[in-house]
Amino acid sequence: MRSPITTHILDVNQGKAAAGIPVSLDMQKGGNWTSLAKGTTNADGRIEDLLKPGSKADVGIYRLSFETQSYFKKQGSKSFYPEINVVFEITDSGAHHHVPLLLSAFGYSTYRGT
């Protein structure tokens, strides 16, 4: 069993996983954001336990916030994006939702993973 929402970050500048990045998960409720979970990417750049494994994510709008500034500072590198927010909508509460982030100091990309 795994969390219904997972993420991982790949540093495309270095060609490897981005470890040690703080990530928070929020859900929009009544026009406001409610914090659901926080985690930090592991050595493989992943967070697989934001929500309780085996649970279901409610239908709604979610936000993953990646605190990238500290990651780049540790590397002695500047970054244009100190924080990256990825907002997505869950319409199937029974499905798994994986949100990868491809990261570089001056750009990023994301997609719905498997």
CATH fold descriptor: Immunoglobulin-like
Q: What is the class in the CATH system?
A: Mainly Beta
Query: How many beta-strand elements?
Result: 9
Rounded radius of gyration (Å): 14 Å
Structural class: mainly beta
Termini Cα gap: 15 Å
The CATH architecture term is Sandwich
Q: Which range does the strand content fall in?
A: over 45%
Describe this structure in words.
This protein is mainly β and 114 residues long. It has a single domain, classed as Immunoglobulin-like, CATH 2.60.40.180. Helix content is 6%, strand content 47%. It has 1 helix and 9 strands; from the N terminus they run E-E-E-E-E-E-H-E-E-E. It has one helix at 68-74, and strands spanning 5-11, 16-17, 22-29, 32-40, 46-47, 60-66, 84-90, 97-104, 107-110. Strands 1, 2, 5, 8 and 9 form a 5-stranded mixed sheet that branches. Strand 8 and strand 9 (107-110) form a beta hairpin. It starts with a strand and ends with a strand. 25% of the residues are buried. The model has no long low-confidence stretch (mean pLDDT 95).
